[in-house]
């Protein structure tokens, strides 16, 4: 909606008579709006021709720009740009041209040109409020804070409206926030901003709430909490009305910063009386209480304890306060609030931490939790609430607790199968909560295999029974009993990890597939299925699962890792490419999106949101996942295309890859992954810890470093290949070459260091909780030998470069070295290939067994073959000219039979032969695997023996097995295809 | 037992249990959220559980002409994670939005809801809302489902002493006819 943007950006509608020019422009706008760019260009041309006698741009600049927009949108960027510049150099001052140029520059991603445009316009029309404000916004878009400050002030001087003044103040705050030097912020920018606001306060010119908010922000950043507090409590604070409890919240914040515990306590107390469910105020109430106790604070003898009212300073008072709140809830007819009961447990927890004996006055935690369960056990959140305080129960009480809870669950008569079932959804939820608690307490984990299998049978029975309550559920709703199904899956996973019995895993997949058939919107089923298929090395089913999750925007950053970790590593290159694109599209739109709303925040005076938006943008730009997909995307493109559809050099250039440049924010990497997206009711000692998070980030970062160095090395290698040979190069070229090889050298030693760090990390053999982050590819990359093989191949290119400079004469040592490298690479590749041998899927004694690691290793092999072949291609480019000049020499020497072929040339020939051999071997292996996979008749498997799987469940399990089989085949086919293409490229290396 | 506070951009990273995967009608893009945060930050409130989980959020705005007595609060989105349903959280969030609209001098609060979403319609009725009019094919088709009508539901605020703003309009209107 181009016209809409124009009209709204013209915010302060000027209300003058419509410009006849506007009317004539309308058809062009209409065409552009409808995406009919060609017609827009034609229409613009038609009208432009009427003014043949004059220079087009001068006669009709706005039409000219509209034509440029049409050109830009039809992919003629260069033409569009020069047309636009023609108009821009005239420094137009008519709205139509300016706005159309603004749009054009934005579409060209050249926002800095807009600032130039309005700088000129403001010079020519210095009294225009509109142009000044456009100039301010143009600076805002590119984050030129200093210039914004000046533009805001100039605007205010032209039209003395408060918002303009405060735009300028806010720009000072932004200079403070973005200043590298915190001292500069504290001694210059912020004090200046403060003085500017104070001036307005003195002159009693403060009008809007936003201005008070900004004042508060400045004082807070300056650490002037006393002043901030006075301001909020004073007349200015009365303007803080939009947000609920705005003044109270700000006061509370300042009390905490200033450690004014009496005020903090009294205010929390006051707010809790008003709303006994506000959790944050219980926390501040307890915090302040204990601070006061530690300081033995006693109230002054005056009537009021402090400005906020009465202060509590003893445990007795706190106990009474909490007990009173609970009693009040008990008395209520309406739905009781959870807050007071939770506060009671929180208080016990804190008293226990302090070793304070008074907790008994609140009661026995076991009884309190039972009471809580009695009141809230039918709410799905009961487990989330109680989980926090389970540590208050000693382990010897756990079983008793479970039994007592069970007594509070109304179940029907015990049937033939030995189970009683709930009569309604409330009873079901209660029963479910007991199961969840028993799992969190670790009671399920201590069961032996037989016990766990019985538990599975029981949970399954409850699951199937509960389905009747959700018969009328919409497709988009969850089934009431879904959680039973998920828990069955968790117990199966326990059994699988403990016993290694893969049947448990197959049945787990079956039960989840069954669950999904009844509850097609259950994201937890999908996520767990996704995780299991990935662990099994079967990526194909994951694609559909992920897309049915319908992940949006930030989710590509928070859960995208589930997909991108496995896509490429399992050899599903097409799917990998697609999944990287999902994520990249989101990250790339972020930059554009945020700057638009930063500008809006200025317009609406939402000043506190401006740094927040910028921090948000930064958080996304520094995302680990973003850096990973960026790198993996390029590597993948090289592996699948370079030297196949276009040369390595062309590919590298098309990506704009520069080996010297490292755009990954190593020191500020943000781990935005949501590592607890999968529900877990595991006991505390099996949960994901902060240490796990740290280790996972460390591991991922090192792996990313390996990958990004590999990528940059490949870019380096590509440019090395481009270097003209020494003989016909002049001095500058020679320098160019050595610069390139020194980059290669530097990157190689960085890679070497990184691999050493990597080895130390993998030695730790960190195991994450099953439902936590997947391990990175680092460990298998190292153990397969692919990293070192790739590094030696790249190292070889350096030696070859040396040979290129030295020539064939007097280089026998170098030549021997190269030949040894050739041989060693063959050995390394051969070893790597041998690690790929084995059956990825096989049937043994009526059991289906997988070895997904073989697939991952095969991918490493293929990636390594790619790298080695690029080095081989570079070798050929070095050796070819050497060989031909040798032949010329030979001819001159008239058949001197004594000159044998230099070792490096014969060595190379031998090498390419061996490479061909290895690739053929690998292809045979892939073909063999494909054949044996196809030959596997899964239908012949007898399922369900001994584990009471119903016919239906067996059907789902079988379907899951089929998916895995098909996916393996898919991976093998893609890997085979790529290997074949690589084998073809090898042929061209012979000479 | 909840912590109610202003929604911030960082909450978008914790969204997975509420928003995601629920096929909510309200799957917005980042620009949409940022627009609300920039324009009506006070109307964007999030509820957080003691363990830090996001329980739900409400997002709204103030709009309409004061002169024509159409200045009002609008509920754009209201979501509660399945885990935290049946606790009265939606009612609490609605109450807050109404209070903010009261302070702004709004005449009423309104919202749109799918005609088929009986659970939601009933909940809003319990909270004092009534159907003001039907908007034909307000929700555009997705996933093979046809276009769907919406109820425009309203609740009068204290400024509308005669409760004029909620007198139902008998004839359905088209989406392009609503303001």
Automatic annotation (TrEMBL), chain A:
UniProtKB keywords: Cytoplasm, Membrane, Repeat, TPR repeat, Transmembrane, Transmembrane helix
Coiled coil start-end: none
Cytoplasm as UniProt keyword: yes
Taxonomic superkingdom: Eukaryota
Keyword Transmembrane: yes
UniProt main location, coarse: cytoplasm
TM spans (from-to): 858-882
Any Gene Ontology CC annotation: NatB complex
Subunit structure: Component of the N-terminal acetyltransferase B (NatB) complex which is composed of NAA20 and NAA25.
Family indicated by similarity: Belongs to the MDM20/NAA25 family.
Protein name: N-alpha-acetyltransferase 25, NatB auxiliary subunit
Organism: Oncorhynchus tshawytscha
Gene: NAA25
From TrEMBL, chain B:
Listed CDD domains: NAT_SF
Keyword match Nucleus: yes
Catalysed conversion reaction: N-terminal L-methionyl-L-glutamyl-[protein] + acetyl-CoA = N-terminal N(alpha)-acetyl-L-methionyl-L-glutamyl-[protein] + CoA + H(+); N-terminal L-methionyl-L-aspartyl-[protein] + acetyl-CoA = N-terminal N(alpha)-acetyl-L-methionyl-L-aspartyl-[protein] + CoA + H(+); N-terminal L-methionyl-L-asparaginyl-[protein] + acetyl-CoA = N-terminal N(alpha)-acetyl-L-methionyl-L-asparaginyl-[protein] + CoA + H(+); N-terminal L-methionyl-L-glutaminyl-[protein] + acetyl-CoA = N-terminal N(alpha)-acetyl-L-methionyl-L-glutaminyl-[protein] + CoA + H(+)
Domain N-acetyltransferase: 2-158
GO cellular component, one term: NatB complex
EC number: 2.3.1.254
Localization (cell): Cytoplasm; Nucleus
Main location group: cytoplasm
Domain of life according to the entry: Eukaryota
Family annotation (InterPro entries): Acyl_CoA_acyltransferase, GNAT_dom, NatB_acetyltransferase_subunit
UniProt KW keywords: Acyltransferase, Cytoplasm, Nucleus, Transferase
Top-rank EC class of the record's enzyme: transferase
GO molecular function terms listed in the Swiss-Prot or TrEMBL record: protein N-terminal-methionine acetyltransferase activity
Similarity-based family: Belongs to the acetyltransferase family. ARD1 subfamily.
Oligomeric and partner information: Component of the N-terminal acetyltransferase B (NatB) complex which is composed of NAA20 and NAA25.
Function field: Catalytic subunit of the NatB complex which catalyzes acetylation of the N-terminal methionine residues of peptides beginning with Met-Asp, Met-Glu, Met-Asn and Met-Gln. Proteins with cell cycle functions are overrepresented in the pool of NatB substrates. Required for maintaining the structure and function of actomyosin fibers and for proper cellular migration.
Protein name: N-alpha-acetyltransferase 20
The species this protein was found in: Oncorhynchus tshawytscha (Chinook salmon)
Gene name of the record: NAA20
């Amino acid at each position: 909606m181009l016209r809409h943007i124009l009209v709204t950006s013209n915010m302060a509608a000027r209300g003058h008579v419509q410009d006849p020019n506007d009317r004539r422009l309308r058809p062009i706008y209409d065409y552009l709006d409808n995406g009919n760019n060609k017609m827009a260009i034609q229409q613009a041309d038609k009208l432009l021709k009427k003014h043949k006698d004059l220079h087009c741009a001068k006669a009709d600049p706005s039409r000219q720009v509209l034509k440029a927009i049409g050109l830009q949108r039809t992919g003629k960027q260069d033409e569009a740009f020069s047309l636009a510049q023609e108009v821009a150099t005239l420094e137009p001052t008519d709205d139509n041209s300016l706005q159309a140029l603004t749009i054009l520059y934005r579409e060209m991603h050249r926002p800095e040109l807009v600032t130039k445009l309005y700088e000129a316009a403001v010079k020519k029309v210095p009294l225009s409020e509109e142009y000044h404000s456009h100039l301010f916004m143009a600076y805002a878009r590119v984050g030129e804070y200093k210039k914004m400050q000046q533009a805001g002030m100039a605007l205010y001087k032209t039209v003395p409206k408060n918002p303009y003044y405060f735009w300028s103040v806010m720009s000072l705050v932004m200079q403070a926030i973005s200043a590298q030097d915190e001292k500069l912020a504290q001694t210059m920018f912020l004090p200046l901003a403060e003085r500017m606001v104070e001036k307005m306060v003195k002159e009693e010119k403060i009008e809007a709430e936003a201005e008070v908010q900004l004042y508060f922000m400045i004082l807070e950043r300056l650490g002037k909490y006393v002043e901030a507090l006075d301001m909020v409590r004073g007349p200015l604070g009365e303007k803080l009305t939009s947000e609920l409890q705005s003044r109270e919240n700000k006061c509370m914040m300042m009390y905490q910063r200033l450690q004014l515990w009496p005020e903090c306590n009294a205010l929390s107390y006051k707010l809790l009386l008003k709303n006994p469910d506000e959790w944050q105020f219980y926390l501040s109430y307890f915090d302040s209480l204990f601070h006061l106790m530690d300081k033995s604070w006693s109230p002054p003898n005056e009537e009021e304890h402090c400005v906020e009212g009465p202060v509590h300073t003893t445990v007795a008072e706190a106990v009474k306060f909490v007990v009173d709140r609970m009693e009040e809830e008990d008395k209520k007819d309406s739905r009781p609030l959870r807050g007071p009961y939770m506060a009671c447990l929180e208080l016990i927890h804190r008293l226990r931490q302090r070793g304070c004996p008074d907790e008994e006055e609140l009661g026995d935690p076991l009884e309190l939790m039972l009471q809580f369960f009695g009141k809230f056990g039918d709410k799905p959140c009961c487990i989330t609430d109680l989980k926090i305080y389970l540590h208050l129960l000693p382990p010897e009480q756990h079983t008793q607790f479970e039994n007592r809870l069970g007594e509070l669950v109304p179940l029907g008569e015990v049937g033939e199968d030995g189970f009683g079932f709930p009569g309604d959804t409330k009873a079901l939820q209660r029963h479910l909560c007991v199961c969840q608690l028993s799992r969190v307490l670790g009671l399920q984990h201590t069961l032996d295999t037989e016990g766990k299998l019985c538990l599975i049978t029981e949970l399954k029975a409850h699951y199937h029974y509960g389905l009747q309550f959700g018969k009328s559920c919409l497709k988009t709703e969850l089934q009431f009993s879904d959680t039973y199904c998920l828990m069955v899956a968790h117990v199966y996973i326990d059994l699988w990890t403990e016993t290694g019995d893969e049947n448990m895993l197959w049945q787990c997949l079956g039960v989840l597939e069954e669950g999904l058939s009844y509850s097609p919107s259950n994201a937890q089923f999908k996520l767990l299925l996704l995780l299991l298929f990935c662990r099994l090395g079967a990526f194909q089913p994951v694609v559909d699962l992920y897309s049915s999750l319908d992940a949006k925007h930030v989710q590509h950053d928070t859960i995208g890792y589930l997909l991108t970790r496995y896509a490429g590593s399992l050899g599903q290159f097409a799917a990998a490419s697609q999944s990287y694109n999902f994520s990249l599209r989101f990250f790339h739109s972020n930059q554009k999106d945020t700057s638009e709303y930063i500008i809006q925040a200025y317009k609406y005076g939402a000043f506190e949101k401006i740094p927040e938006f910028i921090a948000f943008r930064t958080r996304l730009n520094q995302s680990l996942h973003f850096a990973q997909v960026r790198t993996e995307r390029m590597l993948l493109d090289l592996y699948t295309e370079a030297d196949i559809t276009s040369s390595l050099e062309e590919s590298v250039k098309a990506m704009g890859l520069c080996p010297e440049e490292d755009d990954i924010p190593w020191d500020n990497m943000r781990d935005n992954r949501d590592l607890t997206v999968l529900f877990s009711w595991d006991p505390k000692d099996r949960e994901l810890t902060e240490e796990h998070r740290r280790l996972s980030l460390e591991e991922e970062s090192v792996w990313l470093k390996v990958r990004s160095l590999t990528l940059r090395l490949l870019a380096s290698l590509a440019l090395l290949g481009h270097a003209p040979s020494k003989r016909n190069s002049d001095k500058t070229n020679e320098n160019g070459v050595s610069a390139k090889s020194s980059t290669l050298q530097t990157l190689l030693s960085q890679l070497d260091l990184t691999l050493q760090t990597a080895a130390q990390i993998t030695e730790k053999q960190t195991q994450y909780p099953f439902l936590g982050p997947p391990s990175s590819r680092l460990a298998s990359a190292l153990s397969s030998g692919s990293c070192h093989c790739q590094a030696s191949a790249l190292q070889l290119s350096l030696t070859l470069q040396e040979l290129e400079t030295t020539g064939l004469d007097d280089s026998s040592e170098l030549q021997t070295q190269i030949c040894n490298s050739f041989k060693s690479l063959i050995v390394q590749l051969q070893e790597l290939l041998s690690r790929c041998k084995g059956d990825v899927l096989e049937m043994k004694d009526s059991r289906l067994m997988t070895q997904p690691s073989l697939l991952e290793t095969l991918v490493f092999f293929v990636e390594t073959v790619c790298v080695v072949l690029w080095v081989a291609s570079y070798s050929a480019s070095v050796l070819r000219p050497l060989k031909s000049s040798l032949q010329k020499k030979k001819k001159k020497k008239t058949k001197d039979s004594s000159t044998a072929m230099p070792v490096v040339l014969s060595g190379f020939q031998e090498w390419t032969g061996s490479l061909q051999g290895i690739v053929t071997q690998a292809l045979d292996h892939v073909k063999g695997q494909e054949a044996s996979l196809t030959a596997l008749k899964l239908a012949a498997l007898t399922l369900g023996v001994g584990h009471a799987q119903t016919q239906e469940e067996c059907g789902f399990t079988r379907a899951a097995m089929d998916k895995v089989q098909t996916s393996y085949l898919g991976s093998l086919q893609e890997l085979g295809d790529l290997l074949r293409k690589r084998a073809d490229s090898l042929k061209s290396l012979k000479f | 037992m909840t912590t109610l506070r202003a929604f911030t951009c960082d909450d978008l990273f914790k969204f997975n249990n509420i928003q995601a995967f629920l096929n909510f009608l309200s799957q917005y893009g980042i620009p949409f959220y940022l627009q609300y945060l920039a324009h009506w930050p006070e109307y964007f409130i999030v509820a957080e559980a003691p363990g830090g989980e996001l329980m739900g959020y409400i997002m709204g705005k103030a709009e309409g002409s004061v002169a024509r007595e159409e200045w009002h609060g609008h509920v754009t989105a209201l979501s509660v994670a399945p885990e935290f349903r049946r606790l009265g959280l939606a009612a609490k969030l609605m109450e807050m939005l109404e209070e903010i609209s009261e302070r702004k001098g709004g005449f009423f609060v309104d919202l749109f809801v799918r005609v088929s979403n009986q659970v939601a319609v009933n909940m809003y009725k319990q909270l004092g809302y009534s159907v003001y009019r039907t908007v034909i094919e307000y929700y555009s088709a997705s996933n093979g489902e046809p276009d769907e009508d919406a109820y425009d539901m309203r609740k009068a605020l204290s400024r509308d002493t005669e409760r004029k703003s909620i007198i139902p309009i008998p004839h359905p209107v088209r989406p392009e006819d609503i303001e």
